[in-house]
Amino acid sequence: MRLLFSRRSVSGEADNLRTSMRTLVLPLLLAIAGLANAQNLPARGLIVQLKPSIQGEREQPFALRERLKVVARDSGVSSQGEASLGRRHMVLRFPGLLRGQALDDAARRLRLHPEVVSVEPDVLMRRLDTTPADPGYSLQWHLQSPAIHASALNLPAAWDITTGTVASVVAVLDTGVRPGHPDLAGRLLAGYDFVSEVEFANDGNGRDSDASDPGDWVTSAEASGPIFRFCEVSDSSWHGTFIAGQIAAATGNGQGIAGVNWAGKILPVRVSGKCGAFLSDILDGIRWAAGLTVSGVPDNANPAKVINLSFGGDAPCGSSYQSVIDEITARGSLLVVAAGNESGAPSRPADCRRVLTVGAAQSNGAKASYSNLGGAVSLMAPGGTSGMQLYSTVDSGFQGPVSGTYGYKQGTSFSAPLAAGVASLMISVNPSLTPAQIVDRLKASARPHATGTGYSPCGSGNAGSCECTALTCGSGLLDAYQAVRQALNPAARIATPGSVSPGSVLLLDGRESAAATGASLEGFLWTQVGGPALTIRSSNLSVASVTLPATAAAFEFRLQVTDDQARTGEQTLVVDTATVPAPGGGGGGGATSWGWSAGLGLMVLAAVVWRRVRLARSAA
Predict the structure, then answer these.
(1) Which residues form the catalytic set?
(2) I want to staple 42 with a disulfide (CB 3.0 to 4.6 A). Which of 66, 97, 278, 568 is the partner?
(3) pTM given for the model
């Protein structure tokens, strides 16, 4: 018999041995490095695991503490107290914080004691760094602390609470997106192209499942022709790609920029081609984004609770717009729109009900010169100026797409997505929030408008930059941190009663109320805040009832819910025995009810007429 050893087999055995050694040694080295890092952190004591007692029975906490006290004394380690930590572990408290060599010496002496199984420092753990590692983040002044720029969103503090969840879906109704952009990789859901006119679509077809942006450039020759004669000559805007990056660019990947929501998904809904978007395409896109059925279009498998629309028109809100907005609101979706860039009063859909209007502030907190203003504006967010623009994802092509890159823009078109992104962070911590409750909490958490900007107060005569007031610019400056904190409050939700009549029993049902993720509801309190006094039965339960008087009247009831963290939320219900009742605004932590006649805004640079059909254009 011959034993054959090939060079390859011997070498393979050696390689296996080296691999095994690496497998054993590398974790040990990493553990030693980790221990060294831990010893550099300040510790208030040591977490010690003792061996089982000689009797083999489970010791009472008092006995364990006495044993640890003796072990510490025998080991020469000074202590100030002992506390139980589970069945076998104890915390040995130092008289003061220790670190470095002193901490290492104390831990080593205890490890040498025969009754000790393990020792680890009770170090002061630092929160993980939530500053994005993206190189372009330093150019995104608008995301950072308001201590530097008054209108900045305060996102680093918000990210310490949440960086978003995968379940957060924000629809972007726009020009489409560039799916190949490196900062949008893995961030896009399957969308839809609602541009119905082939000439304007610029992709060779009408509606289809491809929501990518082919470009929306208009040449001088096209602008001189019959179809595009009302259009302006322009390069491709990559408007939708810019907005998608603002909301949910891949963050912490070492390239590009940071998005507001690090984990959320973008639902691209293409409604605009060359020159702008037809109103009917926008309306179908809104309905589809919210999960409603659109004739001839496959159902949307990923309905969005937040929809961004940075388009508008030059006419008052019509019944078609309002009807769609009412539908999606009832479905649980919030439409976030831009105030527009004419430095005047917002128009449709900014003057519709049940939308969140966002105006543009410059870096010092004053109204940007172009931003619309007035009672329809809900709040302000950074919009940029010529010297301090916003930075996000675009394509390098002047006409068709070439490659993903980054660029600067300004306008209320880009203020709205910031609010949409913050709304998605709020939903990440409290998915039960209704559109009205989101708006209430955004407005309640806004910072006061900036003062000392050097501008005169905004008023009807202002045509440029001015110092905002609550009457002209809404509730204040968007603050992501405070908004997310507000979202942690539980959501009180009152079911709309059926028909009511004088003399009937009214059921007050708050069973749909919910706490934020990780919390639970502990208390319900029903009170009457308007109308002839009535007796509420079971006022401290989720379901209460009252008997209405025989004469017709109007009544208002409030439900306040409390969670296990003592946080509260509330909603009101107005009942008129002569009309159908409806819940009022939902709040929490001081939020006011949502005024349905206000809080609307949209972005509109201009409206274009073609074949007597009105187009809505984005505000850039």
Answers:
(1) 174, 239, 413
(2) 97
(3) 0.75
